[in-house]
Amino acid sequence: MPQFFHAQQFRKLTLGLLLLALPGFAQTRIQGKVTFATDQSALPGINVLIKGSTTGTTTNADGIYEIQGGEEAVLVVSGIGYLTQEIPVKRRSQVNVQLSDDTRQLNELVVVGYGTQKKRDLTGSVSSLDAKDFNKGVQTSVDQLIAGHSPGVQVTQSSAEPGGGVTIRIRGANSINANNEPLYVIDGLPINNTSVVPSSTVVSEPAARNPLNALNPNDIESVEILKDASATAIYGSRGANGVILITTKKGVKGKLNVNYALSAGISEVTRRVPMLNAKQYIGLLNDLRADQKQAPEFSAEQIAQIGDGTYWQDQIFKTGSVQNHQLSFSGGQDKFNYYASLNYLDQKGVVISSGIKKYVGRVNLNYTDEKFKFGLSLNSSNVKDDFVPNGVSVNESAGVINTAIFQDPTLTIKNPNGTWTQTQIVNLENPVGLANEVSDFATTNRTFASIFAEYYFLPELSAKINFGTDRQDSRRDIFTSRLTKRAEGTKGVANVLTSNSYNNLIELTARYSKAINKNNKLEILGGYTFQEFETSTLTAGAQNFPLDALGTDNLSAGAQNTFSLGSGRTKNQLLSYLGRINYNLLDKYLLTASIRADGSSRFGDNKKYGFFPSVAVGWRIKDEVFLKNVNALTDLKFRASYGVTGNQDIGSYKSLVLLGPQGQAIFDGTPYVGISTTQLPNPDLKWETTTQLDLGIDFGILENRLTGSIDYFHKQTKDLLLQLPVPRTTGFTTTFKNVGGLKNSGFELGLTSINITAPFTWRTSANFSTIKNEVTDLGDLPFILGGSAGFTNDFTIIRKGDPLNSYYGYVVDGVFQNGENIGASAQPLSRPGEYRYRDVNGDGAINSQDRTILGSPFPKFTYGLNNDFTYGPFNLSFFFQGVQGSQMFNLNRTESENPISFRRNRLLETYTDRWTPTNPTNQNSSAIPVAVAYTSNVNSRAVETASYLRLKTLQLTYNFPTAKWKHVRNVQVYVTGQNLFTITKYTGYDPEVSAFGTSNVRADYNAFPLSRTYTAGLSINF
């Protein structure tokens, strides 16, 4: 579909919105008095506005107001702590108003596990977000909606590719090998939170896909994030990483409401990695040759022929585009309501051959009467991904982005005959050719649905049955043309990979809720659940095709001796019993206790069931006599909780003896594949267990003009799943066991303030959280090294007393200068201009014993700040997000300073400020290959500060006055900017990305660059 507008049109639209004029009305004087409905006392400082205009005033000390407005105007009367009223003037000159207390904030319902609770009665740590809190602009998934808005919840865009994966850590990382992502529950259905897009050994795993791409963010009503054990223990062996409850929109009583929303925009790369251009590249290589007393790499004639060369990053980057269409219908009657929506999203990335298309449909139906409730939630989607070709085991592990960084800039894009230019000097692809000649597409169809029925035997006693299903089918087609270096020897490579998964749920719950008397309230929940997961895969491949045009459409056209075939299937089940008690005494003293028993097929025969209890107490101290008359304090509640949760997401069959193919034998001329055991059993294998203490305070000040919460948490995880060595006499080298521990602790602060209410409103929300992660136990293992990308291995360490997956390598202490006593140093064979490394253990030699902790992937603290300004029909909002104190391993730097090939390109600073006898810098080396390699290329120069402050969204909205527009309820236009700027010292594309997706190992390699996006939108309600 065509792009909707260009940058110039976008700027014109923005200017036009700022110059919109309001329609005029015949003005008359309106006056009146505003009083409190309970005792008729006058209310000073109450805001009185003419709806849809910028005209407003406030009441005086006697509650009197006076305002100019049209005869058919509508007064909007509001004040902090009071319910807002909208009153039609109807040609009156005297309009008196009575306001009532606004207790909605404390009485509003918050979704919790298997039910809802009043906010005032919560004893657990729960963040509740709705439309006013969500990130603005184009968001392809629910994770992106909530990023940065909840303390203790770190949402990281692990890939900026359209539809790319998002990593969420709620109060730190709890596991080494098991999944660290939270459990997602959509309308009561716990879903599979991993993507089913199959991976390939031919083209590496695409940047992690977001499992929630199948959900339309515009359909989301609210998101609740359960953080402490009191809130998550009801989910038992899946609650250790926190739980995200997603509630979709429902219809409301009234006539049909039709909404159409359109947004369209453009994107651009926020920055490029500064590399040498052709002239600088030639200069550097010739200088390096001269320094080594060798002939120049390029002659004067070659330099003249090369000219300006090619800046490859400019060739693979483009202006991206996005368009998003949303059509929804909602309404209802006394007992029945409905909501239905259709969504189409088309986003093309800022790198050629990248994008996503989504088609999503939803239907929600609900029926309620005195005895019976019924609900249906159905979501179906078709998602088409166009992947950027990534790294593989050939071509020096480089994908499109990596080759654009390091490819020789003296090459042209194409040869004179029109073929892609290739070089044998550097074993890298032509990045433009790679992007065009490798097709990598995936189509995923996903449907998840839930249906429930609840019957009330008595007003206080009900039983509920809930069925749910989540089905996904994905096919990925990869074809590598013979015009690439990857496939020039194989005459084309084709692979088709399919994956099918399902998740079925049945729940039976009963609830008893009774106000025993005015001082005692009791609610009891009990239930049974059963959930089953199954995934099957099928892969096929072929090579040596007669022509490229066949692609993956006819694998049989390849050479038979190249055919490959594979399949697999995994299945697991979860059987659970749960119970919870909520007790409220005097509406001041609150108690919540829960327990869940989980039986999982993933556990060993001796450990099939795990038990996960929790208890929490709350004290509404504001309702005590000694604080009731403290008018400045609107609300004050203390919370404390302690509980046990688990993590059973360790993969299937880890406790069992596994059989697999092993070798081949020939009998009577017939080949037979052998079968042998591939894994030792462990009947005692069980879930990882996390205990958590939470202490919290919720408060409201000055009639809730300032509200917030403060929490301290301490999480201890034990029985981590690790692969441990076993005697070779067993026939194996390792087996899975429960060994090891982790600790996470920190503070969280969330604040919301209403700063100004007239003549315009200004609302601020802010959050701040700290995190400290530490490995507490590894059993008999002294440490575990990990991390592998490109030409670099073992750049992280897991060791007792350190943060999980800390960066581990050598400290650079400067550069050897002329005249220094190199022979007496720990690097006696080094030369001037080479890096000096720190002798950490002081033994006079640089070796592997001198490696040390270089940094942590965990930030010291994260923060977010959102501001909303409203003036008449205009609204301006902006949101800043920040991370402080984390590091990132930048493999671009290691590959630039330790190139595998002399002809690979280098970072710009390598040339502009490299060490020479006339430029004795202590920052950069001479770039001449070292005489003796004392270390690996994992050093403190490559582990960079990844702190940043980002203006994540900025949006200006205009609401047209529609009082006289027939059949039109609301018309809104807006312009939005996303990722407008980032303040950081990090030298890569983005300090937030990671090549390892949802893994705790973080590194920047082949990272899809962050994009700056501008969108304009229109929303119409009929």
From TrEMBL:
It is found in: Cell outer membrane. It comes from Dyadobacter sandarakinus. Residues 118-243 form the TonB-dependent receptor plug domain. The keyword Membrane applies. Gene3D superfamilies: Carboxypeptidase-like, regulatory domain, TonB-dependent receptor, beta-barrel domain, TonB-dependent receptor, plug domain. Keywords: Cell outer membrane, Membrane, Receptor, Signal, TonB box, Transmembrane, Transmembrane beta strand, Transport. It is a multi-pass membrane protein. The lineage of its organism: Bacteria, Pseudomonadati, Bacteroidota, Cytophagia, Cytophagales. Belongs to the TonB-dependent receptor family. It comes from the Bacteria. This is TonB-dependent receptor. NCBIfam families: OMP_RagA_SusC, SusC_RagA_signa. Residues 1-26 form the signal peptide. The keyword Membrane applies. PROSITE patterns: TONB_DEPENDENT_REC_3. Residues 446-980 form the TonB-dependent receptor-like beta-barrel domain. Coiled coil: none annotated.
